[in-house]
Amino acid sequence: MMGQSFREVLQSGKFVVTSEIGPPKGTNIDKMCHHIDILKDLVDGINVTDHQSSVMRFPSIGGCLHVKEKGGEPILQMTCRDRNQMALQGELLLAYTRGIRNVLCLTGDSIVVGDHKSAADVFEFDSAQLLRAVRHLETGKDLGGNDLDGGVQFCAGAIVTPEAKPFEPQFIKFEKKVEAGAEFFQTQAVYDLDNFAKFMDRARQFRVKILAGIVLLVSARMAKYMTENVPGIFVPQNLIDELAAAPKGGALNKGIEIAGRMIAELKKNAICDGVHIMAIGKEEVVPDILAAAGLTSGGTAHPASGKTLHAS
Amino acid sequence: MKSITKQKPLEEIDRQLDGMDRVYLVGCGTCATMTRTGGREEVLHMKEHLQGLGKMVTGWTVVPIACDEMTDTTLRESNGAIKNASCVMVMSCALGVHRLASYIDKPVTPALDTLFIGLEDGPGSFHEVCAQCGHCVLGFTAGICPVTMCHKHLLNGPCGGTNDGKCEIDKTKDCAWTLIYQRLKDQGRLDVMRRYQPPGNSHVVPRPRIARISP
Question: CATH number of the domain at A6-292, please?
Fold first, then answer.
């Protein structure tokens, strides 16, 4: 596996696993670095979120630099919320010079859901336009039509929401992202695997890799909250019941078991090309999720060796 | 088309009038009357408030259309009362404030904040339909403007926050792209939605925006 780029891993036919970390609010990077240490040899790529939920934090590119320094494979999440086309391009140039080769092109959350509610938002580009901007930069020209002194090459991805309601407009957007040059997709959290399989039946006609979004459920309350309040997320009642029936203090373990079970099923039935695990603050249990999924031989939270433990 | 306004918080209004004891009040008979922010009733209410603060209201009027050039002529009748005032407080949208400030040689201060230019879609209900972006996209969005009606002004379809046809930021607001999709579908024109739309030009008319129509 060593030396393989994320794009090569995507093309290798193996079941791909990515995960993500959230940079800190502040300059104490200890926890983020700890999470990178846990994940870097276990997963094929580590997303670094970009002021997720419009909460101001240490920047995604800063987190990616740390992933890179520690020998992990960073996936730069880049939203159009805070940057105009000048800033987007400039940051892509910086990323490239520092060995960051993967970029996830996102529109970005609304400012008003975050913690700087009166801040200006940009949204000069949308995610499809950002994908095209990446592909344009790769031609050696900037968006102003000027020659670049040294170009870029990125493995560019995007997101899709299989549970979006209504779904058809979302699928048109998905097609436009494919057309704009997305090579891989990480989905919003999916829990209803039958519905996800239906989505995959349609998505399979496109030559892109799709990683199912797995958000760790840590309690029945969280599951209920998400299904009722987060657009694009649906948690079936049987999963909520399963979490509620867990013994006191056992909901997290049940969530790990559910995530592992879903991943195993996705892999066994070859429903999609891999998974993107979002543990949202509980990154230390990602190894347990992988073990529950049967993707690692160990199953201990802290593998002693640094080598990649993926089953192929 | 109406200029939608909202009265400023009273403490901000009071602060703007610091050191000005004599106020002349101007309301507007058009948009601000319709939105109940600067009609006769609101002007009289403001008069009472200012008098309560110990200020003298030297006079008041509600001009027919504050932003119209005729406002100059209308206000001439009140010259004395305006002259006697230390400032003119305008209860219209910013267009009216500008119109008055351009020829009144006194401090002119707004009592309202101008929110947007909107259409009335029912009694007392207004929505913004045009952001005057300078590159109209209505031809490929079935007459529904995503620049104005989508929270993130997206040009290529909905974001992941689309919520049963509503916007993720507010369940009472429609998702523009759900509306666009539905109307294009009804018209048998979904191919238009599949077409890539490049980013707009942020400087079609760089600010300050001025148009001069040739004779």
Answer: 3.20.20.220
